[in-house]
Design a protein that fits this description.
two-stranded antiparallel sheet, about 450 residues, about 45% helix, 11 strands, seven-stranded mixed sheet, alpha/beta, 16 helices
């Protein structure tokens, strides 16, 4: 409100009249608060190399603002019709926002249903495990973490020191593990529901399946509390968790943080991040996520911790799309495959140090046992084409790092070629007594624009 009054007051000084000032102030506030949403809609636009959505939007809005100011200063025509049109437009925005709010509150994912039907309850075997012996479960998705043999062959990096550390601490490292899908959202929806996706899915339905997933419902039925850590990807922010940890707010209040990010302030935030990558929301989020996981206390009831860590996935500050991967990475950065692989190994090495510390602190906790799953959603992207299976090294993209710490004999149920769709079929059967059969391990490629037109990869 204070900002609106300041803008209106300055507009009155500029135009020396309330009608013109009100029209111009309304336009400026519309530009200011719609910037973030327009940026999100244009985030994949690639008009010219080195020119991204921020450049297009900021320049366009600047030109429109100056042009509108000049027209308003010159015109002598009455503007009552324009004022009425602006009022109707404002009313339409209020109605649209109200409809979206109501739709959210009555959505199936909000009221605990799926597809408009009551969510099916899966019976947890009573008495299988004493409640005080149910393990805390850490499910940490490591975005784009490649398998050991692929790292050695394509990246020239020997990851045996890290995998050896895990094995020495009781982990099972699946040496021939593959992803079920080549994109994060597809892989996450499949693993959290421990089933394959339907070709008739769409992206909206996919995000609902991630948010309102089968795993969370079963764990809650068994008495678990659920904690989720903020991700760089909006679809991976599982706010349905009992406790959602926001790791990179600009201000302490979540509403005002979202308001800032949806405004033109996001332009300046991203520009600052491009100059100082360590201060970027991405890097702060990564460090904070590990800090929260390391300090997570053991509570009276069992806990499930979920975190999607966007590393060693590429992060290139200063370009139009800093999180571009695969063919998009090469388009935006103009870098070579060798540069991609060097940066990837550097990020992976730093990530390994975070993981060593985290694993050590979790295993040092006494009392309740711990299940730890360190699992990639897909492999690396140095030879990944977002638009073509033929142009993609499917072995690189589908071969994933997958390490599991399953106490009390659980490691014996894991196997070298397992895929994420079977992870929680194993965990829930072992620790909750659910009768879940393993599915055939399969892998599918799909393009970014047609994510549900699957092409099977059979190594």
């Amino acid at each position: 409100m204070a900002m609106a009054m300041v803008v209106l007051a300055l507009s009155v000084v500029l135009f020396r009249g309330r009608v013109k000032a009100a029209l111009f102030a309304s336009l400026m506030l519309l530009f200011f608060f719609s910037y973030g949403r327009l940026f999100f809609a244009l985030r994949s636009v690639k008009p010219f190399p080195g020119i991204g959505p921020h450049d297009i939007l900021f320049i366009s809005m600047g030109v429109l603002s100056i042009g509108t100011a000049c027209l308003l200063l010159k015109t002598r025509k009455p503007l009552s019709a324009h004022t009425s049109a602006a009022n109707l437009f404002s009313l339409a925005l209020v109605v649209l926002s109200s409809v979206q709010i109501v739709a959210y509150w009555i959505s199936p994912s909000r009221i605990g249903t799926r597809g408009g039907k009551t969510a099916q309850r899966e019976p947890v075997a009573a008495g299988t495990v004493r409640p005080d012996r149910l393990p805390d479960v850490y499910y940490i998705i490591l975005d784009g973490y490649a398998r050991r043999d692929v790292l050695r062959e394509l990246y020239g990096f020997d990851n045996s020191a890290f995998t050896g550390f895990l094995e020495a601490n009781g982990f099972f490292v699946a040496g021939n593990s593959r992803s079920n899908y080549c994109q994060t959202s597809l892989s996450m929806a499949s693993s959290l529901n421990y089933e394959y996706l339907d070709r008739a899915e769409d992206r909206i339905r996919l995000e609902e399946r991630i948010e309102d997933n089968r795993l969370f419902r079963v764990l809650r039925q068994a008495g678990y509390g659920i904690t989720a850590v903020e991700s760089d990807y909006s679809f991976a922010n599982l706010r349905s968790a009992d406790r959602f940890i926001t790791t990179s707010r600009l201000v302490s209040n979540e509403f005002y943080d979202m308001l800032l990010r949806s405004s033109v302030m996001s332009f300046f935030i991203d520009r600052q991040a491009s100059r100082d990558s360590a201060s970027s929301p991405h890097e702060k989020r990564l460090r904070s996520a590990f800090d929260h996981l390391e300090k997570a206390p053991q509570l009276s009831r069992p806990q499930f911790f979920f975190a999607h860590i966007l590393s060693p996935h590429p992060y290139t500050p200063g370009i139009a799309v800093p999180l571009a991967d695969g063919s998009d990475y090469y388009y935006y950065t103009k870098k070579s495959g060798d540069q991609y692989r060097r940066e990837y190994v550097s990020r992976l090495t730093a990530l390994n140090e975070h993981l060593r510390t985290l694993v050590g602190r979790i295993l040092a906790k006494s009392g309740r046992p711990n299940v730890i799953i360190l699992q990639a959603d897909h492999g690396g992207g140095s030879e990944y084409d977002l638009d073509s299976a033929a142009g993609t090294n499917l072995r690189e993209r589908m071969s994933i790092f997958n390490a599991l710490y399953l106490p009390e004999g659980g490691n014996r149920l894991a196997y070298a070629g397992m895929t994420p769709v079977n992870t929680f079929r194993i965990v829930l059967k072992k620790y909750l007594g659910l009768e879940l059969e393993l599915l055939e391990d399969r892998s599918f490629y799909s393009t970014w624009d047609a994510p549900f037109q699957f092409v099977e990869y059979a190594p």
